TrEMBL record, chain A:
InterPro entries: TF_Znf
Source species of the chain: Microbispora oryzae
Domain Transcription factor zinc-finger as annotated: residue spans: 3-40
Compositional bias ranges of the Basic residues kind: 66-76
Protein name: Zf-TFIIB domain-containing protein
Region (Disordered): 49-85
Domain of life: Bacteria
């Protein structure tokens, strides 16, 4: 499938039963009919499960959600980034 | 002999001495002023043994300290508290007269230039560039901190944060153990500046979802408890927001350029930083 925005190549991913097309070039995402609603429903369920009190010092308006998993920071590149300029 | 680092600088260890070859274009006068300032900062920054010129390179000599290792991090022993306390002490010292401006904003600008140098396509670089444009929206280009190499420490603009003694490139690799205590190293970007930039890198990692809230809280709480003056205890993100955005852009630009050069996809940490750039643009656009 061709990206409707930039004509790049779209690749298909399956995430928890939701079909997602992502453009290799502009990273835009195409959803089929009803899939946005499915994602919204799943997000609401997840947010309910993983509610955590806000951190003591707050965060910026653009900060990431820190409720659930912390998978990233064990990644090798991330550990190296802690040390280097 | 052990090679510790080979990037813009070359750092090798020979016995108890660490030798650092600075980039060929280094301003020798500025470096000499920075090293002179470090000699007055006992118990905060590691003092150099000497500075020499070898051909076209300036070479500084240092006593070897014990750096943090991946094992320290895996054991949950990252010295966030010590880092916070040392930065609080540094920021509380007066800015020595004649010290050049801190190098943080120039580093952010250099990181952005890497996108062009690596030939990253415009569509991929777009979120990083757009986030960069949020950093100094109301300031004419010539007056931005990243365009003022000759700015004196006392040239505060109206409403700008106070000029404080600032490390200029702080991260966990800038801490070493020596004689049972911890010290900051690497004064190459030391100078007068907005000291909140020294907290900007961990703040950016935290805001990108990479640094866990517990570690971030240990770092920031230690900084505040030690009298760190750059951020307010009641609302630290008032001062942190702009430097954290700048460091997010810097880290994202470096990661995207490096991945593109290597012909590899973005790793999860780089993806998280690019996503943070997208959120910066969205949040800034909404607030205008």
């Amino acid at each position: 499938m061709e990206c409707p925005k930039c004509r790049g190549r779209m690749r298909t991913f399956d995430r928890n039963g939701v079909h997602i097309e992502q453009c290799d070039n502009c990273r835009g995402i195409f959803l089929d009919y009803g899939e946005l609603e499915t994602l919204t429903r799943m997000e609401a369920q997840w947010a309910q499960q993983s509610y955590a009190p806000p951190p003591p010092h707050g965060g910026p308006a653009w900060g990431a959600h820190h409720g659930g998993h912390h998978g990233h920071h064990r990644h090798r590149s991330w550990v190296e980034a802690l040390f280097s300029s | 002999m052990t090679v510790l680092k080979r990037t813009r600088v070359l750092v090798i260890r020979v016995g108890d001495v660490v030798v650092k070859a600075h980039p060929p274009a280094t301003d020798g006068d500025a470096l000499a002023r920075r090293l002179a300032a470090v000699r007055e900062l006992d118990y905060v920054l590691l003092a150099p043994l000497g500075l020499e010129r070898l051909g076209d390179r300036l070479v500084s000599l240092w006593p070897a300290g014990e750096p943090i290792t991946v094992d320290d991090l895996d054991a949950g022993a990252a010295p966030w508290e010590e880092g916070g306390r040392l930065l609080a002490r540094l920021h509380s010292r007066p800015v020595p007269p004649g010290l050049p401006p801190a190098g943080g904003p120039a580093r952010a600008r250099r990181a952005l230039a890497k996108l062009d140098d690596a030939g990253v396509p415009a569509a991929i670089a777009a979120p990083v560039r757009a986030a960069y444009r949020t950093l100094w929206p109301d300031t004419p280009r010539d007056a931005r901190p990243d365009a003022r190499p000759g700015m004196r420490p006392d040239d505060d603009l109206d409403g700008a944060p106070p000029t404080r003694l600032t490390h200029g490139d702080w991260h966990l690799g800038q801490l070493v153990r020596r004689r049972g205590g911890w010290l900051l190293i690497d004064p190459d970007d030391l100078g007068g500046g907005d000291a909140a930039w020294d907290l900007g890198r961990p703040a950016a990692w935290y805001a990108a979802g990479l640094l866990d809230p517990g570690s971030w809280d240990r770092f920031l709480s230690s900084y505040l408890a030690a009298g760190g003056p750059a951020v307010s205890a009641s609302d630290p993100w008032r001062e942190l927001d702009a430097p954290a955005r700048a460091l997010t852009v810097q880290l994202a630009a470096t990661a995207v350029a490096t991945a593109w050069r290597a012909g590899e996809p973005l790793d999860p940490a780089a993806e998280a930083l690019v996503s943070a750039c997208e959120r910066i643009v969205a949040a800034t656009t909404v607030s205008i």
